[in-house]
Amino acid sequence: MELLFPLLILALLVPMFLGIRRQKKEMQKTAELQDSLQVGDRVMTTAGLHATVVGLDDGTVDLEIAPGVVTTWTRMIVREHLVDDATDEADDDYIDETPDETQRRLNGE
Q1: Is residue 45 a contact partner of residue 75, using CB atoms and an 8 Å limit?
Q2: This model's pTM is above 0.85
Q3: For a Cys-Cys bond, which of 50, 73, 89, 107 suits 77, CB 3.0-4.6 Å?
Q4: Mean pLDDT score of the chain, rounded to an integer?
């Protein structure tokens, strides 16, 4: 019976310790990301907004969310650095297509 109580305490403390340690690593990684931001980077915010960094200040970041639309946010809102694919550039070629042209292209005509 004497051994049961220390084992119970240990069983409760170990997961808590591991959780705190994992959370601390994630916070450090997020802080490094926010400190490494540069003008021109594509980022995603905690709300899922995709934007381009157009200005940086000590605690804020200016994000262009649409052509000519710039908003100011706290740096803590940046969650992820996005990597541009070659597919984004390829999709830009078809922006001015009509629906009929798109259908013909997809059908291989």
Answers
A1: no
A2: no
A3: 73
A4: 84
